Amino acid sequence: MSSEGKNLIGVDVGSSSIKVCEIKEGRKGARTITRFGFHPLPAETIVDGHIINSGAVVEGLEKLFARSKRRNVALRASGHSVIIKKITMPLMTAGELQEQINWEAEQHIPFDLDEVHVDYEVLHERTDHGQMDVLLVAAKKEEITDLTNLAMEARLRPMVVDLDAFTVQNVYEMGYGVAKPDETIVLVHVGAATTTVNILADGTTAFTRDIANGGNAITEEIQRQLGIGRDEAESYKCGGEGRGIVPREVPEIVNQAVEQLAGEIQRSLDFYLATSGDRDLTRVCVSGGTANIQALLDIIESRSQVPVEVLDPTRVAEVDERAVAELQGRASQAVVCIGLALRKERERH
Ligand SMILES: Nc1ncnc2c1ncn2[C@@H]1O[C@H](COP(=O)(O)OP(=O)(O)OP(=O)(O)O)[C@@H](O)[C@H]1O
Ligand SMILES: [Mg+2]
User: Fold this and answer.
1) Ligand nearest to the CA of residue 328, numbered in listed order
2) What's the pLDDT tens digit per position in 291-306?
3) Reported pTM
4) Under a CB-based contact definition with an 8 Å cutoff, are residues 312 and 26 in contact?
5) How many A from CA of 215 to the centre of ligand 1?
6) From CA 16, how far away is CA 220, in angstroms rounded?
7) Distance 41 CA to ligand 1 centre (A)
8) I need a labelling partner for 35 at 20 to 30 A (CA). Which of 98, 223, 319, 349 fits?
């Protein structure tokens, strides 16, 4: 992909907070993260991927952009509004594929084609089999329009809409290099409400899955078992800053809650291994706010028997002084908005 022009501002409207990142790219390609902004959202602002409290989102965006003259943004769409499928098609030219893709999409996507935007990318051409693997992405127009309308209400200009799985992959590839042909890299992005698994093999996406589980489930378990409110439970989960001593039951409750999540992640890995013919996984890289929970990393590692590490998004760019302070303790949460901020105003695929 070659691209020109300035970087877009990355805007990740997640279910627990809005994250914003600006990257400046010098003429020689040196990148600097010049700003990171964070705005927590009230509970129930976004439910099952739907923005319920649009006022809270617009207000948050206005606050985050109050002092910004630049308005061209790349937005993150919720996985709920999108279907990603890897399909196999007979080998054909780009022109034939363009003609064929809607018919193909109709076979694989359970929505009316009028209701979705269809996008696709050829992953692999297997000339010897006369086949090619194509990644098919269908996004519900209505949900995407709701999101871009909210952004426009906050006087932003949405230029690009992308998904967690692909933005995390972008950060991985720029920060760590494109996965080598003999490597299988598992990217696990664990937010508040959702977890996205994206497995890279032969240098491209081989498997993606969204799991409706994340940090919220851990907070809710602490709330339930200790009979306390959400804010208190959330703070104990994150180490108890400002709340005094963390009740001694908390680590055990966290352990129980992450077992469930790690189990669902492991099922995706097992499914991939059973269906792909791939024999082993090289590494698991975890991102998203819930990557801060060491117990989760430990359980994924012990179940999968694959080395687990936290994805470091600051490998894609220098971080300037001001942004260092803003990113403090939030690097894992910033991965998606950093991935979005790598996108350019003009891109040619
Ligand atoms: N230091 C920490 N320790 C434990 N959990 C943390 C920490 N920091 C953040 N989290 C958790 O991470 C989650 C938020 O992560 P993130 O910002 O990636 O989610 P989101 O983008 O808002 O949600 P989603 O993408 O699922 O809609 C919350 O559940 C929060 O409690
Ligand atoms: Mg998120």
Assistant:
1) 1
2) 999 999 999 999 999 9
3) 0.94
4) no
5) 6
6) 14
7) 12
8) 349
